[in-house]
Amino acid sequence: MRVGIHVPVFGPLANADNIIAVARRVEALGFDSVWSSDHVVMPARVESRYPYSATGQFLVPPDSTWFDPLIALAAVASVTARVRLGTSVVIVPYRNPIVLAKMVSSLDCVCHGRLILGCGAGWLKEEFDALGVPHRERGGRMDEALDIMRILWRDGAGTFNGRFYRFSDMHLNPKPVQKPGPPCWIGGSSDAALRRVLRRGDGWHPTRVTPEDFRIRLAVLREMAAREGRDLGRIALCPKTSYDRCRDLETFMAFKQAGATDILIDFLTDKLDDLYRGLDAMAHDILPRVRE
């Protein structure tokens, strides 16, 4: 099982120096990947229910610093050579899919083919409203965007005629280093998200799950895959959780035994020393065992 680390792109530790320093340390310690996450703007008062906490309350104060995920990873690409770079997740419907395809393709070139595009449909209605994107259309817009990006990454002059987006004979260059494009890992645990994994995804990336949560929803994904004739052996399975919930070998092994091929750890701390101590402990006590 590969282990990735979320760098401090949001919260009290979010600044350029910390993003670079943590990414360098993650690579030096032998972890497999470095990740960023996405919000563009935040309402002063969040009314929408956050679907990944028991209370429905979002975990980050609305006035927190939050770096753009692709720009942060471009900076990380310049100071690393081995680790994969991932978004966890970029909210696809927030952006015009042609512009997003260009940014992702450029980043894959900058990092020499190390990018994983974690994709989500989003949840925060107030943010959709501020960006002028209908919240109720987010699923359909995401599906079309995933199709559009692959067309533009693959074809010489791409054409698309959908419900939300249309264009004819458009070139997008440079093409990604990875062919036919960076792997797209789909976030979320709903039935709609699982269907999207099977129809448009290269990986499944649920967030803030326990090993038991992951095992239960993976069983549903297996049933869906059998009906649709999709081989799950070709799909990455990467739960995301926090270091507070997953700092002992037993929990890591529970995720591995449940079927995870990868795992992403987020540090929700305001102390850089605590983050470094956690990284050092995982590198010494966890990494060798989960790779056996």
Structure, explained:
The protein is an alpha/beta fold and about 290 residues long. It has ten helices and twelve strands. Strand 1, helix 1 (about 15-30) and strand 2 form a beta-alpha-beta unit. The radius of gyration is 18 Å and the shape is globular. The strands form two sheets. Strands 1, 2, 3, 4, 5, 8, 9, 10, 11 and 12 form a ten-stranded parallel beta sheet that branches. Helix 2 packs parallel to helix 3 (about 95-110), helix 3 packs across helix 5 (about 140-155) and helix 7 (about 210-230) packs parallel to helix 8 (about 250-260).
> What's the β-strand tally?
12
How many DSSP helices? 10
The separation of the N and C termini measures 8 Å
The residue-averaged pLDDT reads 97
Spatial shape: globular
What is the gyration radius calculated from CA atoms? 18 Å
Helix share bin? 25-40%
SSE class: alpha/beta
Biggest sheet, open or closed, and with what strands and sense? Answer: 10 strands, parallel
